[in-house]
Specification:
The protein is mostly helical. The chain is built from 18 helices and three strands. The radius of gyration is 33 Å and the shape is elongated. The protein folds into two domains: 280 residues, ABC transporter involved in vitamin B12 uptake, BtuC; 145 residues, Arc Repressor Mutant, subunit A, CATH 1.10.10.10. α3 crosses α4, α11 crosses α12 and α13 crosses α15. The termini are far apart. The chain has a three-stranded antiparallel beta sheet with strand order 1-3-2.
């Protein structure tokens, strides 16, 4: 069986630049139909694929896309010609039958859903291949174009196909818009949906019907084999971009449309290049981009955030050590030598000097030439006091509220001191009745004491930190 995914615009050899200009002129009718179909396909698949991904039903899309092939063949055999309406009805019925069989297998046997999906996918697809092969052996079968439903041929899309795709897209968007809250509830908490009297089974089967419609209209563009990729890849891309479903739906639709347009462009730009596979490759490229550079879940930005946080924690630990050294000396000195700091931090002198240079670069300290010592700037002192305050407040909270032994709270406070926000710190202060000492008897700095080291009255009438007590 000769199967080939067609491309847009079988034309004479011209330069890539001229071909690109021709694409953006939109003069070719075949190009306009293929581009409109690809965009509508991406839009529809992105919308429904979002719900598939969040419901962990990705394999359902793959199963339905393969299950429709026998229906395509049956639609052709109905009147022995490639009638779009007969094929649409036949493919939709086959897709729904496949979805129904999966539901019955999981409900009446011990089989898990993934097993049932795999069985239905393989069985229906095998039956479809047999029927397509049988059709091609008929006297007019080789010219029927039925084989194009396997891998798609966007160049063969016509006006009636675009109207059908647009109608299905309009229907899908309208229903999702009307029943968005119910779909949201069913997708994330089916048990709660049952409790509030939402007909979960009706919404599930209605969604499967829309999914079957979307799969069928996508067959001629990308084919049975690749339609599941267009259902899942744009939605997976959007899943990496946001944690809100309404934004995910928007990003998935945008990624699907962009993948469709890119597939049409690259297919038109090359020679003898198929449109459907290029749409899938474009969607995969967008996913790779999101995988590395998504704002919250991209691995590069996450690596950078971890690296930045690691550097911040390292600087804050050094600031805290400088503060402890000054506190042990009763704040009689303004600087701390590298030797003293290295002993407190249990580091080598070289590591201590490097850490001090990081404080200087961040504007938290100065390193006078010729002195092996670090002096905190006013901003550095305020930051050091903040870290110490967070640490000691958390120790006191764990001791008083969680009944931790005082000698077991230090390690936990070491972790939490770097992430406590000011609002939570203020809440802790109120809950602890503005305590001024931690479980070990050490003073807790207050916001009013966030001042520089020098120029203060260090007499006995001031607090043990050397700062004037707030009124």
């Amino acid at each position: 069986m000769q199967v080939q995914a067609g491309r847009i615009g079988e034309i004479t050899e011209i330069t890539a630049w001229d071909q690109a200009l021709r694409f953006f002129s939109f003069k070719d009718p075949a190009l306009r139909y293929a581009l409109a179909g690809a965009i509508l396909l991406g839009l529809n698949c992105g919308l429904l694929g979002s719900f598939l991904v969040v419901r962990k039903l990705s394999l359902v899309g793959d199963t339905i896309s393969h299950a429709v092939l026998p229906g395509v063949a049956a639609g052709f055999l109905w009147n022995m010609e490639k009638d779009p309406l007969a094929i649409f009805v036949g493919a939709t019925m086959a897709g729904l039958l496949g979805s129904f069989m999966v539901s019955r297998l999981t409900a009446t046997t011990k089989l898990k859903e993934d097993t049932a999906l795999g069985m239905v996918l393989a069985g229906f697809f095998g039956l479809g291949i047999c029927l397509v092969t049988m059709i091609q052996r008929l006297p007019t079968g080789n010219k029927s174009g039925i084989d194009k439903f396997l891998f798609g041929q966007a160049a063969s899309l016509g006006g009636s196909d675009i109207y059908l795709m647009a109608s299905v897209a309009f229907l899908t968007f309208g229903l999702v818009w009307i029943f968005y809250k119910e779909l949201l509830t069913v997708s994330f908490d089916a048990g709660f949906a049952h409790c509030v009297k939402i007909p979960v089974s009706w919404f599930h089967h209605g969604f499967m019907l829309l999914l079957a419609f979307s799969v069928v209209i996508a067959l001629q563009a990308v084919g049975v084999v690749l339609v599941s990729a267009m259902l899942i890849t744009p939605a997976a891309t959007a899943y990496l971009m946001t944690d809100r479903l309404h934004r995910m739906v928007f990003f998935a639709c945008l990624a699907g449309m962009l993948a469709g347009a890119m597939g049409a462009f690259f297919s038109f730009l090359g020679h003898q290049l198929p449109t459907g596979p290029f749409m899938v490759l474009s969607a995969a490229a967008l996913f790779v981009f999101a995988f590395f550079l998504a704002p919250r879940h991209g691995i590069i930005l996450r690596w950078w955030a971890r690296r930045s946080r690691s550097g911040r924690v390292r600087r804050e630990n050094t600031l805290k050590a400088v503060f402890h050294a000054l506190e042990q000396d009763g704040f009689r000195r303004e600087g701390v030598t590298f030797m003293t700091l290295s002993k407190l931090r249990r580091q080598t002198l070289e590591e201590t000097e490097t850490a001090s240079q990081e404080l200087r670069q961040a504007g938290f300290a100065t390193l006078p030439p010729g002195e092996k010592a670090v002096y905190l700037t006013p901003e550095g002192m305020r930051r050091a006091q903040t870290i110490v305050r967070n640490h000691r407040l958390w120790e006191l909270y764990l001791t008083d509220a969680a009944n931790y032994p005082p000698d077991h709270v230090h390690d936990d406070a070491e972790e939490i001191e770097h992430v406590l926000g000011e609002d939570l710190v203020r809440q802790l202060e109120r809950q602890l009745n503005f305590a001024d000492h931690d479980p070990h008897g050490k003073p807790i700095p207050t916001p009013e004491q966030m001042v520089s080291l020098h120029g203060q009255d260090k007499s006995a009438s001031t607090g043990s930190l050397g700062y004037a007590k707030p009124s």
